[in-house]
């Protein structure tokens, strides 16, 4: 498992694993030629899960569980602290099953990150008998404010050694969400969450959904490369067939916005988010915040990338005449 997580990072850094198309490009925010505001007075901050973020952005969970992951999480944590944004970590399965690698996750506790998100995978919930204890341990490992349960069945179906039993996940999600005092969210990992899945999740006590939609990192692509590395030609071809599988992130947001608002669920838009303009589009379409993973792995400097995120978000607010983030929700969006 440690090798697998390491290979994921190496493949995302060194190969082209994006979807063929980024769907955020299909949407434009309508330009306001007379914004009548002073850019210096723009407030990009929001409150999310009761925590104040300097902008509506989360570094989406990516890694942990092997030696070098500690450095990656530490670098991300430093930037999350400096810019005052949220941060998730990768699946904590390895840390829960092997104390030796706990530090690769818990390192983020050393930093004052306003919102820390723990992470466990739905497929593991079916294997573990003590799901609530495991979830609690994952939270304590990083002093998390929120626990994310990830759904990744696209990845599991392409991964040569994938876990393909998806029976009983929703019950386990319900059990965890109703037993913990820490808020629980459900997140996809690049294939998106549809309205009907979100409606089924309403039967649980989760407090938010990260749609983790299509348009950015393709886990079918990542697993196609891994299958190639071990000479599994069938799984490699399967990965190529499903490379672009998934519900585009902006469409997930449009579909889920009303449902989430009516039911008091936080809606996070992760998937193909490249900069602050994509974040602004996500908010305008109805999300409360956006998340980005691949963008922070494939850049040459995480610090500079974050500066671009912040500045481009502020520029989008200025050019649409918004002084506060909530005003972005009223901005007109055109579909190309
Ligand atoms: C290298 C890598 C590893 C990831 N590992 C996890 C994980 O362990 N748990 C999880 O919930 N999501 C994981 N993700 C998915 C991301 O959180 C995110 O949903 C997905 O990459 C889509 O966002 P992006 O297009 O900005 O990359 C991973 C993403 C990357 C790039």
What does this structure look like?
- The chain has an eight-stranded parallel β-barrel with strand order 4-5-6-7-8-9-10-11, surrounded by five helices. A two-stranded antiparallel sheet has the order 1-12. A two-stranded antiparallel sheet has the order 2-3.
- The chain is globular and about 55 Å long.
- The termini are far apart.
- It has one domain: Aldolase class I (TIM Barrel).
- Strand 2 (46-48) and strand 3 form a beta hairpin.
- The chain is an alpha/beta fold.
- It is built from 15 helices and twelve strands.
Strand content: 5-15%
Can you tell me the CATH topology? TIM Barrel
Count of helical stretches: 15
CATH superfamily: Aldolase class I
Gap between N and C termini: 42 Å
List the helices and strands and how they pair.
Elements lengths: L1 H13 L12 E3 L16 E3 L2 E3 L3 E3 L7 H17 L2 E3 L4 H5 L5 H4 L8 E7 H4 L5 H12 L3 E6 L1 H6 L10 H11 L4 E5 L6 H7 L6 E3 L8 H11 L3 H9 L7 H14 L3 E5 L5 H10 L3 E4 L1 H4 L4 H18 L13 E3 L1
Helix pairs in contact: 1-10, 2-15, 10-11, 13-15
Q: What is this structure, in a nutshell?
A:
The chain has 336 residues and is of the alpha/beta class. It has a single domain, classed as TIM Barrel (Alpha-Beta Barrel), CATH 3.20.20.70. The protein is built from 15 helices and 12 strands.
């Amino acid at each position: 498992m440690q090798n697998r997580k390491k290979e994921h990072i190496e493949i995302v850094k060194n190969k082209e694993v994006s979807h063929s198309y980024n769907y955020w490009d299909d949407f434009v925010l309508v330009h306001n030629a007379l914004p009548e505001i002073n850019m210096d007075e723009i407030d990009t901050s929001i409150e999310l899960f009761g925590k104040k973020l300097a902008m509506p952005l989360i570094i989406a969970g990516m890694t942990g569980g092997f030696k070098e992951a500690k450095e990656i999480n530490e670098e991300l944590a430093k930037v999350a602290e400096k810019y005052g944004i949220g941060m998730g970590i990768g699946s904590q399965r390895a840390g829960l099953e092997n104390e030796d690698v706990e530090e690769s996750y818990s390192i983020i506790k050393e930093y004052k990150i306003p919102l820390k998100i723990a992470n466990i995978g739905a497929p593991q919930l079916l294997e573990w008998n003590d799901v609530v204890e495991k979830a609690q341990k994952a939270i304590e490992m990083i002093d998390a404010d929120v626990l994310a349960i990830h759904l990744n069945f696209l990845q599991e179906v392409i991964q040569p050694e994938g876990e393909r039993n998806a029976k009983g996940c929703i019950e386990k999600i319900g059990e965890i969400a109703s037993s913990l005092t820490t808020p629980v969210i459900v997140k996809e990992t690049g294939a998106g969450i549809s309205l009907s899945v979100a409606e089924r999740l309403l039967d649980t006590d989760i407090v938010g959904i990260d749609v983790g939609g299509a348009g950015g990192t393709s886990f079918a692509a990542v697993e196609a490369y891994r299958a190639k590395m071990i000479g599994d030609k069938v799984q490699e071809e399967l990965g190529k067939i499903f490379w672009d599988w998934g519900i585009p992130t902006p469409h997930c947001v449009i579909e889920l916005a009303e449902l989430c608002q009516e039911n008091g669920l936080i809606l996070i838009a992760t998937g193909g988010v490249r900069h602050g303009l994509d974040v602004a589009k996500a908010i305008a379409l109805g999300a409360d915040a956006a998340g980005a993973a691949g963008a922070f792995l494939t850049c040459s400097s995480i610090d500079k990338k974050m500066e671009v995120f912040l500045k481009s978000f502020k520029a989008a607010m200025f050019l649409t005449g918004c002084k506060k983030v909530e005003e972005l929700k009223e901005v007109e969006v055109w579909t190309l």
